[in-house]
Structures are given as structure tokens and as C-alpha cells.
Write a structure and sequence with these properties.
Layout (H helix, E strand, L loop, with lengths): L2 E4 L5 H12 L3 E6 L6 H9 L3 E5 L5 H11 L6 E4 L16 H28 L4 E5 L15 H21 L5 E6 L16 H14 L7 E4 L8
Parallel strand pairs: 1-2, 1-4, 2-3, 4-5, 5-6, 6-7
Helix pairs in contact: 1-6, 3-4, 4-5
Protein name: Short-chain dehydrogenase
GO molecular function, one term: oxidoreductase activity, acting on the CH-OH group of donors, NAD or NADP as acceptor
Organism: Pseudohongiella acticola
């Protein structure tokens, strides 16, 4: 049994991650901005002693520290940085706004890496030492054949770069660091035309996380295990 910490668990992929990890018999610390507004999380917590739900506003340094303090030095085996945002859908050339871009970069790149940094003492106590960053194929430069989506594309590209550096820097401590593409998923962010459901995406990503070997650290994989070009 391992202990997972998962961010962005109020809906979609994050909520499904909680359900499936609990179903595998692991302990879970689930975080989101306002867990009191997520009935499904409350129901899961009442039914599962292995689930702890804690508030986290990822963009807030104070909130990140409150989370770390609440863990009270407990070990974390697997950290899944899932929380993120797309930004305004009209953020294309000619309508880009600095404040929008800064917010997406903070939530999608800077805050997850700083949270990981803050949780390193907990992760070092764990036996698994696995870090997963939920990225997107839209962060792949070689796959960009349609342009647009400046905020989300650049944020996920930057997240991939940060994950690669973490993989190198933490390799001496036997950490495994992965960037994961969840697929085009039927969620609020993915929209109604997406190709797969959350169950398929999450089951695949958890398999990738669980089966990853040290040689896989620092690479970019799809939910089905296929390698993705940077």
C-alpha cells in the first residue's frame, strides 16, 4: 500500500484518479481549492478511511505551505500534479493578455514545481519516489501543426522542461519523474468532442506511473504508454 497525493481532485481526471487509486487499495491525500463544494469527494471520504481531503489553492504560496504543514512530515510515495487550467479560449494572436498568460503559467508550471519542491522532505520518506506531472500533447513542439492555444501550449511545454530537469536533479535519489499526456478526455476542459472517457485515461496513466522504470524517468508518455516527442 502506497500513499498518493493528488492535486486538482474536484472533478474530471483528478476526481477519477482519486477513485481509481482508492480502488487499488492505496491511501490518498486529495486536494482542491474548495473541497467542501465537492459532494463526490465528501461521499468518498465518508466511505473510505484511506482518503484524506485537504484544501489547496495551488496558486497561493500560503496555501501550499498550509498543505505541507497539515501533512506533518508524513511520507508521500507518489505525487500526481494534476491541477491546471487552460485559460481563456479566445487567447489567440491579436487578443493575448499578459495577466491571463501569467496566471496560466503560475498555475500550470510554477506552482506545481514549487509544490513538489516543498514536498520533497515527504517524498524522500516514501518508498516509491514517483512524481507525475499531467501535461498535454499540446505541449509538444513537434506535434504543433495547428498553431494557436498560446497560453496552454507554452505552459505545458514549460512544464515538460521542468519535469525533465527534476528527473535529472533527483536521479541520484532514485526518483522517477514523468510527464503524462492524458489523451483528449471528455471533461469540462476537453469538451464534448473528446475521444476517451476519464476512466480510460486514468487507468492508463496509473499503469504508466506504476510500471515506470528508472530508465523511463524524464520522458513524456501518453496514457497508453506511447512515447511522445518533445
Amino acid at each position: 500500500m502506497a500513499k498518493y497525493l493528488i492535486t486538482g481532485t474536484n472533478r474530471g481526471i483528478g476526481l477519477e484518479l482519486v477513485k481509481q487509486v482508492l480502488g487499488q487499495g492505496h491511501d490518498v491525500v486529495a486536494t482542491c481549492r474548495k473541497p467542501e463544494n465537492v459532494p463526490e469527494l465528501r461521499d468518498l471520504q465518508r466511505a473510505n478511511a484511506a482518503l484524506r481531503v485537504l484544501p489547496l489553492d495551488l496558486a497561493s504560496a500560503e496555501s501550499r505551505q498550509v498543505l505541507v504543514d497539515a501533512l506533518n512530515g508524513d511520507a508521500v510515495d507518489v505525487l500526481i500534479n494534476n491541477a491546471g487550467m487552460y485559460g481563456p479560449r479566445d487567447a489567440n494572436i491579436g487578443s493575448l493578455r499578459e495577466s491571463d498568460w501569467a496566471e496560466v503559467m503560475l498555475v500550470d508550471v510554477i506552482a506545481p514545481v514549487l509544490l513538489t519542491q516543498a514536498l520533497l522532505p515527504n517524498l524522500r520518506k516514501g518508498t516509491e519516489r514517483r512524481l507525475a506531472f499531467i501535461s498535454s500533447k499540446m505541449g509538444s513542439i513537434s506535434d504543433n501543426g495547428s498553431g494557436g492555444s498560446y497560453l496552454y501550449r507554452t505552459a505545458k511545454s514549460a512544464l515538460n522542461q521542468a519535469a525533465k530537469s527534476l528527473a535529472i536533479d533527483l536521479q541520484p535519489e532514485q526518483f522517477i519523474v514523468l510527464s503524462l499526456h492524458p489523451g483528449w478526455v471528455l471533461t469540462d476542459m476537453g469538451g464534448p468532442n473528446a475521444l476517451i472517457d476519464t476512466n480510460t485515461s486514468v487507468a492508463g496513466m496509473l499503469k504508466v506511473i506504476d510500471s515506470a522504470r528508472p530508465v523511463d524517468s524524464g520522458f513524456f508518455f501518453a496514457y497508453d504508454g506511447a512515447a511522445i516527442s518533445w
